[in-house]
Amino acid sequence: MSGANQSGLTVRPRRLRTSPVLRNMVRETNLSAADLIYPLFVVSDLDPVKREISSMPSVYQFSVDELRREAERVAEAGVPAVILFGLPDSKDEIASGAYAERGVVQRAVRAIKSDNPDLLVITDVCLCEYTSHGHCGIVRGDEIVNDETLDLLAMTAVSHAAAGADIVAPSDMMDGRVAAIRSALDEADFTNTAILSYAVKYSSAMYGPFRDAADSAPQFGDRKTYQMDPANRREALKEAALDVAEGADMVVVKPALSYLDIVREVRNLINVPIVTYNVSGEYAMVKAAAANGWIDERASVMEIMMSMKRAGADMIMTYHAKDVAGWLK
To answer: Minimal CA–CA distance to 83: which of 329, 315, 245?
Structure first.
């Protein structure tokens, strides 16, 4: 008798790993280009701009005209959705550029939808890129005040919907902003505009490169009074449940890699789609390691994407989106 038979094994999980075809057939988690959302940064410059972000290789700030070309490339790659972050030409204490009819994001939405009506356009609804102090809400003294900020967020969301945004994505972490935005959208007859709420957004060290890209670093203090404490798990479930009750159609868990346990917890709690944000610091670490030859970029990125889907994410916001879509073909 062979050694294998002598072992007495009757259950051999390796039988289902013997060929690529079989491994694909029994795969429990699948990733497709349809799961991807590509973040884009748009600047208000009238002259053509395509400026690489030093801390995020292969990620750029675009003027509106250059953004139109990039959106075309995104669509051709098979990525179905983008999320827009705007950099205005001026900032003030009430973030007036966020809700201006001819604001940078509003112009970008109109341009993209004119060229690619089938490309899903999501807009970031926050004030930090537009305020002179860099915080996500109105400041009174040393306090970022909650309720006064809600009206400005609602105005911003309505202005994005009026420009043609398919989905608005409040990322500010003010209490009650989903209800305020839903009410304002409905009152303005944008009942079909969906809300993708950053329901679970932690105060993370992984946002540094994004703040370079969006010029959104706070000018004093930090965001710990409104973004979540990384030590908290139950609070994430409270935040997600509250936002769904207020009318969120989908929710975000951010960041991704250090919070995959939270993605799973939220997935077990709610029935709306979950998006996880593979944030700038996570992207930068992979790009730096790959540039130094320490990891295989493609293999590492695909493993990271799969981990997010396996944890329970339905969609992934990632700066790797175009590459991943190409690798999946």
So the answer is: 315
By CB atoms closer than 10 A (0-12, 13-18, 19+), residue 38 is buried
Instruction: Give first-to-last CA distance, the chain, whole Å.
Output: 46
Within 13 Å and on the Cβ side, how many CA atoms surround 54?
Answer: 2
Give the residue among 154, 165, 104 at the shortest CA–CA distance from 126: 154
CATH topology of domain 31-328: TIM Barrel (3.20.20)
- What are the CA-CA distances from residue 13 to residues 1, 7, 23, 26, 82 (Å)? 22, 15, 11, 11, 40
Rounded Cα gap, residues 177 and 193, in angstroms: 15
Q: Tokens 């979950």 correspond to what residue?
A: 274
Q: Both tokens of residue 156?
A: 């911003």
Distance of CA 2 to the CA centre of its chain: 55
C-alpha 130/C-alpha 93 separation (Å) is: 8
- The torsion angles phi and psi of 57, rounded to 5 degrees, stand at -55, 135
Residue with tokens 């105005």: 155
Give the number of other CB atoms < 10 A from CB of residue 137: 28
The pLDDT tens digits for 182-213 are 999 999 999 999 999 999 999 999 998 988 88
Q: Which member of 113, 201, 287, 322 is catalytic?
A: 201
Which of these is catalytic: 254, 287, 309, 322?
A: 254
Domain boundaries, the chain: 31-328
Q: How far is CA 266 from the centre of its chain?
A: 16
Record the tokens describing residue 264, joined without a space. 């799973």
113 is catalytic: no
Q: Say which residue the tokens 């790797």 belong to.
A: 320
Residue 305: strand, helix, or coil = helix
126-159 pLDDT, tens digit per residue, is: 998 899 887 888 888 888 899 999 999 999 999 9
Structure token digits, residue 58: 């292969």
CA nearest neighbour of 168 among 198, 136, 131, 193 = 193
The answer to pTM > 0.85 is yes
270, 244 Cβ separation under 8 angstroms:
yes
201 included as an active-site residue: yes
